[in-house]
Amino acid sequence: MNNITQFRPGCANYGCVKPVARIATSTTGIHKYRPVCGHCHKASYGGGKWAVGVTPVKKDFCENIDGRLGFTCTTTVINGCQLDNDHINGDHANNDSSNFQTLCKCCHAMKSKMEKDCNGTKKTANWQSRIAQKT
Ligand SMILES: [Zn+2]
Ligand SMILES: [Zn+2]
Fold it and tell me: Residue 119's pLDDT band (boundaries 50, 70, 90)?
């Protein structure tokens, strides 16, 4: 075990006050969280009911159909499993609903590729170091 205290944001969904669910912990002790709580995650794939008063931030289409990423989405979405909740600014500690957009897997992969910094390091490395700086 380690003593790293890491900010754990609240669930991104409207009306939900639960803390987000943890996906994994890196070898350096940094936790990786889902954008939503465990209850909402389950509900999103039909594994349970949405809590009363909770509205998901995730939409049922890719928001890049408006070309916001610099190209226009042409993916045909037939199931919600093709869609991701994306942190717009890449900061996984910022779970404000305004920091989310819904992207299909294709567009999300392109966004991640475009956001790699000039060293070629992945975005996840960046948000982990940003969290480390905050604590
Ligand atoms: Zn929730
Ligand atoms: Zn898309």
Answer: very low
**Ion ligand 2: protein residues whose beta carbon lies under 5 Å:** 62, 64, 73, 75, 104, 107
Report the alpha-carbon angle 113-8-97, nearest 5. Answer: 65
pLDDT, position 129: 53
Distance (angstroms) between ligand 1 centre and the Cα of 99 equals 16
Comparing CA positions, the residue from 102, 22, 106, 94 lying closest to residue 56 is 102
Question: Of 117 and 13, which is predicted with more confidence?
Answer: 13
Mean pLDDT, the chain, integer = 86
Tokens representing 3 are: 């003593």
The residue written with tokens 């042409």 in the block is 74
For the CA of 44, the nearest ligand: 1
DSSP bridge pairs for 22: 33
Residue in this structure with the two tokens 């912990």, named with its chain if needed? 25
